[in-house]
Amino acid sequence: MLSTLTITQAHDKLTKREVSSTELIQACIDRIEAVDGTLNAIVCRNFEKALEEAKKIDSVGKFPSPLTGIPYLTKDVYCEAGVPTTACSNILREKTYIPPFDSTTRKRLKEAGAISVGKTNTDEFTMGASTETSCYGPTRNPWDTTRVAGGSSGGSAAGVAASEGLFALGTDTGGSIRQPAGFCGTTGLRTTYGRTSRYGVMSMASSLDTIGPICKTVEDTAIVLQSIAGKDPLDATTSDVPVPDYRADLRKGMKGLRVGIPKEYFIDGLDPSVEASVKAAIKEFERQGATLVDISLPHTKYALATYYVICPSEVSSNMARYDGVRYGHTVKNPKSLLDYYEQVRSTGFGSEVKRRIMIGTYALSAGYYDAYYRQAQKVRTLIGRDFDEAFKNVDVILTPVSPTPAFTVGAHADDPVAMYLEDAFMDGAVMAGIPAMSIPCGFSKNNLPIGLQLMTAQWQEALLLRAAYAYEQETDWHTKLPPL
Fold it and tell me: Is 152 a catalytic residue?
């Protein structure tokens, strides 16, 4: 099945004329039509436009970039000219919002020749850890359709795992690339804050949001990052730090790397299969020549609480633009302008978005700003310092991605705090603004994928990819396909 190919394999076949871009696109379309009725990973299908782009590429017959002619999936918060973008929210879905422009990432991938096949499911405005807050309903995990695919980039992770696309775009604010990648057995990268442009990507929490790829392999991740990384004049938060050749150092191996093992990430309540798989991965790192170093990140225990003060505060600001005046959901016969706003937002937003708006508005209100938001920013600084100190002694930090494998759909429906705890191992990297990624490292007794998290210092994605690649080459977890 052509849709199971990696980017590297597909590019090789394209350049050898063993397959055409049109055939690759059609293979993904066929796969989506065959399995997505079960998965619910794709919320907008862009098939005709994708086939047109593929035919143009085939007519030229040249594949200068590893991404030329490669089909991919786009999370439904990336603006794509002429393609509906709803953030999986009724406030934009009722009167479908169709952007008149491309996000910078979409534009860069288009310049490389990559072809967007469809938009993927996400928690509403990326607020959630399971896609269960999506107005389209939850995405199902390809390994067990009674389980969630994770969130908020669950549609992207499930789509890649199920071979509906060769790679996908996601966003990571509190773990929304890494957690679903871990749940679905794919590779997901959160970049350094400012490494990739957020222009044209609907914001949740502007000081925390990052974008990145979900792929089948580490090398594919390096290929996509190479195309999308770098300074963007349309996004003032991007940096002009030079973009290295991310594939150049992939094969340097593990020898000489210092790998930190933080005690705070191996806690009571960690699922036994997760603990066993991660500890086996640690032994593999050591076998390959890495030096293991026990470290401490003492303020990590405050990362989750800090995140859930800062994130809702920024949500309350960013969501203010969705008022029903310029685009999206509207209501009839309001009594006043204030009543109009109230009806639009109360009927257009789901419960999780409204919950975060209310929490954030409270935290920012007069009399509470110093007690909550300002204190959270101070703790954020302390968490960042912990990582800065750790990286003076280690090159890479290794932890689990999540405390458990994928949970069942509806397991946390009545307990939002339990859902927030799914981010426990991922919010530290968010507070520090560092790159982190999830790679497959095993399976639970129920045959559910388990993810391994690696983190490095800011701008050290090349080192992160090198360590991940060395581990991947000596294991076969990334080659497993779900029985769908």
Answer: yes
